[in-house]
Amino acid sequence: MLDSDLKFQDDILNLYRHFDNFEDDNVIGIAREQQPVYRHTFSSYRLNHPGTTVGEPPPDGLTGFNSGVLLLNLSRMKKSQSYNNLLKSDELTKLAIEFNFRGHLGDQDFYSLVSMKYKSLFYVLPCQWNRQLCRWWREHGYKDVFDLYFDCPGHIHLYHGNCNTPIE
């Protein structure tokens, strides 16, 4: 599943081949969020849990995800008891309460919240397959840590013009 604000620099077949890298429990392939948006969104949880990796930058932090590029293994999603349990509102509500989470980015928030506790459901796509261009958070309180999230070295396969950022 792909957002419409993408520009491919590589054959889409090479993205598809990442399904081969899924581990047995992975149902979704998705790239990490490349801004400190979830550092901000999970700020209450982070305040009450010093030393947590929730919202921290890569490589070890739980940055949350960006859903502009999704590899969905539909048959595994259908069969995964863990994933399907999280589709029940009471289970998701428990998770939101546990992490003091209130999102605003729809499906992306769902994947990000779920990943804080159920990492094995996700295959992490390399950042080069969803190179997000938005720099909004740099100028809105996170200049000191922004580059820790935004760094994505190497050949870019796919640019994502999120936040209405032009792709040149």
Descriptive tags:
6 strands; Xyloside xylosyltransferase 1; XXLT1; 168 residues; 8 helices; alpha/beta; Nucleotide-diphossugar_trans; 3-stranded mixed sheet; single chain
Briefly, what is this?
With 168 residues, this protein is an alpha/beta fold. 30% of the residues lie in helices and 15% in strands.
Structure description:
- The chain has 168 residues and is of the alpha/beta class.
- The protein starts with 5 loop residues before the first strand and ends in an 8-residue tail after the last strand.
- The chain has one domain.
- It has a 3-stranded mixed sheet with strand order 1-6-5, with no helix packed on it. Strands 3-2-4 form a 3-stranded mixed sheet, with helices on one face.
- It has 8 helices and 6 strands; from the N terminus they run E-H-E-H-H-E-H-H-H-H-E-E-H-E.
- The model has no long low-confidence stretch (mean pLDDT 96).
- GO terms for molecular function: UDP-xylosyltransferase activity.
Radius of gyration: 16 Å
Element string (H = helix, E = strand): EHEHHEHHHHEEHE
Question: Strand pairing plus helix content: what structural class?
Answer: alpha/beta
Query: What sort of overall outline do the alpha carbons produce when their principal axes are compared?
Result: globular
